Amino acid sequence: MTTKLSAYVPDHHDASDAACRGFQPVLELLGRRWVGMIMLAGRRGARRFGHYRAFADGISDRVLTQRLRELEHHGLIERQVIPSTPVQILYAPTARGVELMDALQPLFDWTARNPGAFTHQP
After folding, report:
1. CA dihedral sign of residues 120, 122, 114, 40
2. Nearest partner of 63 among 40, 80, 38, 85, judged by Cα
3. Which CATH number applies to 22-105: 1.20.1730.10, 3.30.460.10, 3.90.480.10, 1.10.10.10?
4. Any idea what the Cα angle at residue 98 is, between residues 97 and 100, rounded to 5°?
5. How many CB atoms sit inside 10 A of residue 63's CB?
6. DSSP string of the chain?
7. Closest residue by Cα to residue 49 from 32, 62, 33
């Protein structure tokens, strides 16, 4: 029994090899546990550590701190220290972080249209 596959015809939307290599680190960061929830929490207005922790129910303080630092390192979240008593530390998405979330919206939409697409292991 043979199966005929449709011929692949590239179009103008194909990413270059360099673009794919550049995208891989982004994909790896976004694929880390809790990163999506943290980014979404920031987009929805979370600013304090406790707000992020409440939004990402089940995340430990250690992991949340680590993820916030990673996102800050990559310029996706900004950390602001307000000298007061007690000291306040706020986290907010940067313009770059908001731009990334906007770019991901079609992927979120695709996921909503394809529920369960990745729930089974091959």
Report:
1. positive
2. 38
3. 1.10.10.10
4. 65
5. 16
6. ---PPPPP---TTPPPHHHHHHHHHHHHHHTSTTHHHHHHHHHTT--BHHHHHHHSTT--HHHHHHHHHHHHHTTSEEEEEE-SSS-EEEEEE-HHHHHHHHHHHHHHHHHHHSTTTTSS--
7. 62
Q: How far apart are CA 89 and CA 80, in angstroms?
A: 6
Domain ranges of the chain: 22-105
Report which residue type is found at 52. Answer: Y
pLDDT tens digit sequence for 59-116: 999 999 999 999 999 999 999 999 999 999 999 999 999 999 999 999 889 989 998 8
Residues 6+ apart with CB under 8 A from 75: 94, 96, 97
The strand pairing partners of 88, in sequence order, are 82
